[in-house]
Every structure is written in C-alpha cells, then in structure tokens.
Design brief:
By secondary structure, the chain is α+β, with helices and mostly antiparallel strands. The chain contains 18 helices and 17 strands. The longest helix has 62 residues. The protein is elongated and about 125 Å long.
C-alpha cells in the first residue's frame, strides 16, 4: 500500500535466467501495457532512451560485480514502447550474491521524476536567457538569434523568431534548428509567410495575444495550414510533430512572435511547455522594448546635440558682430555721451560676453557628447598660466570684493592644452568669486613627483554632501539658478577636459565653510624643484 500510494514501481531481476518481474506501475513507466506477458530483460532495456542506454547497461553490469557492493542508483530517460512518451526515471536497486560471489537477485524501484527534471531544465533555460538578455546587445536580431539557439538546445527542435512591422506583418529576424544542416529548409518557410492583410494562424496569434498549442501536428493539419504544395513539401521535410506559436508581448501589445516546434514523436508540447515559452517570450519582449527605447533616446540625444552645435555656431556670428558694433559705438561717443551712455554700453558688452560664454559651453557639450573634443598639448608653465588668468580676472575679483592669495613661486612645466586649461581655471575662479563674494580666494600651484596640482579655495557658501557627487554632471547645480544663474555646465566641461588630459578634478566642501577644487595633472616632464 505504501509503494502504491507513493507511485513507485518495483522490479525483480534474476541475472542467471535474465528474467525480469515488474509490477503494473513499473510497466506503465516504461510505456508498456499492464497485460504484457513478456517479462524479458531486453524488452525493458529497449525502452531506455538511445542516448542513455549505454549508461544504464554499464550501471547494471557494475552493480552485478561484487566489488560494487551491489548498489545501483541512476537517473535516465525512457521512451514508452507502447505510448512513445518520453519520461525521466530515478531507479534505485540492490544486487545480492551467493557464497561463490555470483549475483542471484537484483531488486529495486523506479520513480517518475519527469516533472522535477522539466522544472530544473526550465530554471536553467530562463536563467541562461536572463544572462543573454542582460548583455549589452544593441540589435534585436542579435538577441533573437541567441535566444533561438538556446531554445533548440533545450526543449525544441527548431525555433523561428519574428517581429511585428508597422503594417502589422511579420519580419523574420532569427532561426535555429537542432540539426544545423536543416536550417536551409527552415529558411525556405519564409517564402510562405503571411502578408499583413492575410488570414493566418500566426497573425491571429499576434492580433489576439494568445498562444496557440498544436500538440499533434498531423498530416491533415499540415495540409490545412499549407499555403501551397511547395509549402507542404517544406513542412513535411521539417516534420514537426508538435508546435507552439507564442506572441512576444510588452505593455499589452504584441511586438513579435516565437514559433517553437518539436520533431520528436516522444516529445510533444503540453500546457507546461506553453507556460515556459510564454515566460521566455515575455523576457525577450522586455529586452526588445528596452533596445527600442534606448535607440530612440540615443537618437533624441543625437538630435539635441546636433541642435546645440548648430545653434551655438549660428548664434556666435551675430553675437561677435553685436559686440563689435557696441565697441565702435563706444569709440564714437563724445565726452558728454561717455559719462551717460558709457556705463550702459559696458553693461551691454558684459552681457554679450556672458552670452558668448554660454554659447561656447553648449558647443563644448556637443563636442564632448560626440567625442570630438580635441586637445592640442604644448610645453607650458602651469604657474605662469595661473598668474596670467588671475591678472586677467582681477577686475572681476575687485567687483566681488575678493582678495586673492596666490602661491606658486616656481615654474611647473608639462605638456598640456594651454587654452583648455585656461578655460578650466577661468571657470573655477569665476565660481570662487561668485559663491565666495566678499571673502578671500586662495590659489595654490605645486607638484609632487610626476603630478602637477592646482587648487582654488574660497570661503563661500560651500556645498552640501548630497550635492557633491552630482556636481560634475551635466546641467547639475548645487544652488538655485534663480540666485546665481548659469546652465550648470562649467564643472562638467572642466572635468571632461581634465580627464581627457589624463588627470582628475575633485572637490572638498562643507556648507558655510567654502570649497576647495583641486586639479591633478599627470606629466612625465615636470620641471620643478624637489622632483
């Protein structure tokens, strides 16, 4: 009763007579009718899957050798001799020997583990599919080819993957067959694909979003589905015994179709296979949708960068002309007009310079995004550059009521892009004057080994810790633009320039205690005392 309730089959084998006695459940697991009278050992061995048969015979031979201790334990597949159904069995047994160490009895049990094996295979399949889909694959056909190959290596004979076109038709992107030599036959089926307006089981699956299972793809069904005699010939060559047509859906919309077929009579698809295929199709659909969204986003970014580049170029020309006209007007003013109009002209020219700076920043962003930021390194003195920039910005510091302390007595030479470094220094010093107005600014240039350092410290408003990490991102700001203005591009551009030179830029700051920005520039040709 215990054995029956556990659905365990039993067997008893006499090695000397090669006679095998089995109960009714054991017969069913080997696909034999219960009333079969023939209990010969060879009958049951012939039901073992051809790929597992030699392994089973070796295990039996070893169990019948006294050195094995008579132990027998094995998992293998069977193909039912009567029902042609594939099963996974777990068999446990023990052989007994006489005084002459000859086997006299070999008894054991068999248990159907098909569900467990299928569950394990499903987990492996979905796990491998997730790994494939997580890779940086930018083309839908790359994903579909690899998933199709994965499907035929696990639970189908061949696989066809298609995507839905804008007109509602299907475009095939990937095929795979377990027998690679038959993939040419599989490609032939593309000639018989349905048009967007045609009636087809495939299009019906896409439109309804419901998977279709054909457990027995009989000759009658093949004739019904064939679009022509040539199509029927191709289907007969592929010899599918069972089919699944599964839509790939995301956000309630079918974006593709996955066709899975089994050509093995003993392996016919069922509802569990459909559930597995639907889960696989759902993961593929999400991956395809992510690729589409990524490509659209990248295209949008490209269009934005192109617009910024064109707009920057187009706006620079009238701004340059406008500044020149203001300069000419100022020169033509008499003494009386200079006192009344001059300050307004100066204010207008400063605003033009500010607009030019913004345009240059936008242009630099587009260059950085497209990878066209060019550097022209020359042999230069970092200390001298810092002095020149400070002298040029002296009026700005005076207006901000900031005293400047500069420490950089010795030349520090290296090969860097002087114009780009000038741009970075102007940005850092302008920020120091803006956010540390009324307080001293300290600039320090020094070297250690083969690295040059330049730091700019202010005693201004400082930066909150939560804002430091995003400070060097595009369009990011640590303060309100309503109070300080700007696009939030200066530090981003500065970081990109310094990193392009192989260096780094970082900041140390506390709210209310100011900030210190430090440039680190590598060089193999630093010329400084104490090197």
């Amino acid at each position: 009763m215990a054995i029956t309730s556990a659905a365990i089959g039993t067997w008893d084998y006499n090695p000397s007579r090669q006679a095998l006695q089995c109960d009714a459940h054991c017969r069913r697991l080997f696909g034999l009718p219960p009333e079969l009278d023939e209990d010969q050992h060879g009958v049951f061995i012939s039901a073992v899957h051809p790929e597992d048969r030699e392994q089973v015979l070796r295990a039996i031979r070893w169990a019948l050798v006294p050195e094995s201790g008579g132990h027998y334990s094995l998992e293998y597949r069977t193909i039912g001799l009567h029902d042609r159904r594939e099963r996974w069995l777990s068999s446990q047994g023990r052989a007994y020997f006489d005084d002459a160490k000859q086997p006299v009895r070999f008894i054991g049990t068999v248990l159907d583990i098909t569900q467990r094996k299928r569950a394990e295979a499903s987990i492996r399949l979905l796990s491998e599919a997730s790994r494939i889909l997580s890779e940086q694959l930018e083309k839908p056909e790359d994903i579909l080819r690899r998933v199709a190959r994965l499907a035929v290596s696990s639970f189908s004979t061949y696989c066809i993957m298609s995507v839905v076109q804008e007109d509602g038709g299907l475009r095939r992107l990937a095929i795979a067959h377990r027998d690679v030599e038959k993939e040419d036959d599989l490609r032939e089926t593309e000639r018989f694909g349905p048009g967007p307006e045609g009636k087809s089981p495939l299009l019906e699956v896409v439109r309804s979003g419901t998977a279709m299972l054909v457990s027995d793809f009989s000759p009658e069904l093949r004739r019904r589905y064939a679009m022509s005699p040539e199509h029927l010939d191709v289907m007969n060559m592929l010899d599918a015994q069972s089919l699944m047509n599964v839509p790939m859906r995301v956000r309630g919309k079918s974006i593709g179709l996955m066709i899975l077929a089994s050509a093995a009579p003993q392996r016919r698809f069922d509802k569990e296979d459909v559930a597995l295929a639907q889960e696989l199709a759902s993961r593929v659909a999400v991956a395809l949708e992510n690729i589409r969204l990524y490509q659209e986003a990248r295209q949008a970014v490209g269009l934005r960068d192109e617009f910024l580049s064109i707009a920057s170029h187009e706006l620079k020309t009238p701004l340059t002309s406008l500044k020149l006209q203001h300069e000419l007007i100022r020169r033509s003013l008499n003494t009386e007009c200079q006192s009344s109009v001059g300050p307004r002209l100066d204010a207008a020219i400063r605003q033009i310079d500010r607009l030019s700076t913004l345009m240059n920043s936008l242009l630099d962003v587009s260059r950085i995004s497209s990878g066209h930021l060019r550097l022209e390194p020359v042999d230069m003195d970092l200390t001298q550059l810092a002095r020149e920039v400070l002298e040029r910005l002296s009026e700005m510091f005076s207006q901000a009521a900031c005293s400047v302390v500069f420490t950089g007595p010795e030349p520090i030479r290296g090969r860097w892009d002087a114009l780009r470094l000038d741009q970075v220094l102007v940005n850092l010093l302008s920020n120091a004057a803006k956010y540390g107005a009324g307080r001293p600014v300290v600039v320090n240039v020094y070297s250690r080994g083969t690295q040059a350092f330049l730091s700019v410290r202010d005693d201004g408003i400082g930066i909150a810790p939560k804002d430091v990490l995003r400070l060097f991102n595009r369009f990011e700001r640590a303060v309100s633009e309503r109070h300080y203005g700007g696009l939030g591009l200066g530090l981003y551009i500065s970081k990109q320039i310094i990193e392009a030179m192989g260096g780094d830029i970082h900041v140390e700051s506390e709210p209310g205690r100011g900030s210190t920005f430090t440039l680190v520039l590598p060089s193999s040709s630093l010329d400084a005392p104490g090197r």
